[in-house]
Amino acid sequence: MLGSYWFDILLTDFVVGAWSILCAGHHNNRVRACDVHGCGAFNSRRGNGLHKAVDLVCDDYGIVNTPFSGSLAGPVSQKDSAGNQYDGVKLLNDVHCVKIFNIRPYRYIGPVSQGEALGYLLPLQDRFSGITSHLELQMCDGTDPSPFI
User: Which domain of life, per UniProt (predicted)?
Assistant: First the structure.
């Protein structure tokens, strides 16, 4: 039987840094740097508030892979203060719950495996000229997803 100390170490290794690369063709999960429309880091300024998500650089229409094994739990959407709507999907397992925006998933319900093609990135250039193409990761509880990417 493992002692509590070893269990905590194993759990930490499993949880932290456990997500795979989300954007096919990329070598890492790179956070969007600042551009004319803002910055992609967690807690960066967005108008009068803070960005409670992380934006990861992806290519328009590029394949988005599942970051961890779990279940798709339906479509999600959000609107910004200007009325722009962003669509995506919710993914969860026993450890994580995340909403992934700016993608068109191949399906919205059912089990998925880590690294499986989840959908493709929707282009943002039509609405936001000069923006870096990206997907948005938002933890369901509002915490910072950065330690996992």
Answer: Eukaryota
